[in-house]
């Protein structure tokens, strides 16, 4: 990956994870918790959200493997302030991956329109394809039900009381489980990312 492509991909990743985190904050705000607002985190200014490890070091390291991945500082919220104690945390969690899926859909539509009507240069297709790919990876990865990923909060919100021991187990062994998933199981999800990319853009992943 050339230096320019690397920097550009990291910039797209940073803005995508910022949108993801801000979406959490706005959802919490709408549901009654203003923690993120009081801490100045309801902004798309990336400087408010950068995590030195997740936003810089990890993206550079993962780029060596042919893809770019990372994260931003989580937007804080207090689940006890949410109006819906039953569904509030689940809603706050799910809007993060949904925001990435929405970005992927928007840029996927733009790719199809550009290829059909040529109202933008083809170089835009490469840029938009990177946006789609990164946001699909973020959406799929974050829906995995392992703490601290958003999918775990969705799962916990759906679990009946008599199955809460599952939450205890996942939280207790979350570090081990996330390492196992990243190194051994994540590759099993790549065909799903590739399928979604093709459905949205009409192009093969790795354009």
TrEMBL record:
<dbReference type="GO" id="GO:0008237">
    <property type="term" value="F:metallopeptidase activity"/>
</dbReference>
<keyword id="KW-0482">Metalloprotease</keyword>
<dbReference type="GO" id="GO:0046872">
    <property type="term" value="F:metal ion binding"/>
</dbReference>
<keyword id="KW-0812">Transmembrane</keyword>
<dbReference type="Pfam" id="PF02163">
    <property type="entry name" value="Peptidase_M50"/>
</dbReference>
<dbReference type="GO" id="GO:0005886">
    <property type="term" value="C:plasma membrane"/>
</dbReference>
<dbReference type="InterPro" id="IPR008915">
    <property type="entry name" value="Peptidase_M50"/>
</dbReference>
<feature type="transmembrane region" description="Helical">
    <location>
        <begin position="91"/>
        <end position="115"/>
    </location>
</feature>
<dbReference type="GO" id="GO:0006508">
    <property type="term" value="P:proteolysis"/>
</dbReference>
<feature type="transmembrane region" description="Helical">
    <location>
        <begin position="53"/>
        <end position="71"/>
    </location>
</feature>
<dbReference type="InterPro" id="IPR044537">
    <property type="entry name" value="Rip2-like"/>
</dbReference>
<comment type="similarity">
    <text>Belongs to the peptidase M50B family.</text>
</comment>
<feature type="domain" description="Peptidase M50">
    <location>
        <begin position="10"/>
        <end position="183"/>
    </location>
</feature>
<keyword id="KW-1003">Cell membrane</keyword>
<keyword id="KW-0378">Hydrolase</keyword>
<feature type="transmembrane region" description="Helical">
    <location>
        <begin position="122"/>
        <end position="144"/>
    </location>
</feature>
<dbReference type="InterPro" id="IPR052348">
    <property type="entry name" value="Metallopeptidase_M50B"/>
</dbReference>
<keyword id="KW-1133">Transmembrane helix</keyword>
<keyword id="KW-0472">Membrane</keyword>
<feature type="transmembrane region" description="Helical">
    <location>
        <begin position="173"/>
        <end position="200"/>
    </location>
</feature>
<keyword id="KW-0862">Zinc</keyword>
<protein>
    <recommendedName>
        <fullName>Peptidase M50 domain-containing protein</fullName>
    </recommendedName>
</protein>
<keyword id="KW-0645">Protease</keyword>
<keyword id="KW-0479">Metal-binding</keyword>
<feature type="transmembrane region" description="Helical">
    <location>
        <begin position="6"/>
        <end position="32"/>
    </location>
</feature>
């Amino acid at each position: 990956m050339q230096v320019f492509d690397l920097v550009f991909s990291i910039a797209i990743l940073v803005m995508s994870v910022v949108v993801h985190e801000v979406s959490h904050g706005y959802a919490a705000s709408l549901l009654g918790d203003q923690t993120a607002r009081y801490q100045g985190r309801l902004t798309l200014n990336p400087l408010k959200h950068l995590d030195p490890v997740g936003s810089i070091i990890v993206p550079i390291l993962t780029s060596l493997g042919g893809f770019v991945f990372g994260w931003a500082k989580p937007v804080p919220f207090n689940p006890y302030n949410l109006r819906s104690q039953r569904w509030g945390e689940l809603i706050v969690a799910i809007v993060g991956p949904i925001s990435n899926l929405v970005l992927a859909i928007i840029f996927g539509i733009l790719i199809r329109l550009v290829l059909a009507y040529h109202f933008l240069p083809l170089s835009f297709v490469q840029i938009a394809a990177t946006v789609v790919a990164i946001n699909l990876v973020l959406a799929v990865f974050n829906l995995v039900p392992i703490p601290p990923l958003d999918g775990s909060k969705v799962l916990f919100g759906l679990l009946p009381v008599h199955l809460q021991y599952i939450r205890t187990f996942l939280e207790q062994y979350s570090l081990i489980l996330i390492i196992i998933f990243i190194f051994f199981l994540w590759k099993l999800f790549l065909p799903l990312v590739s399928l979604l990319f093709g459905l949205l853009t009409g192009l093969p992943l790795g354009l």
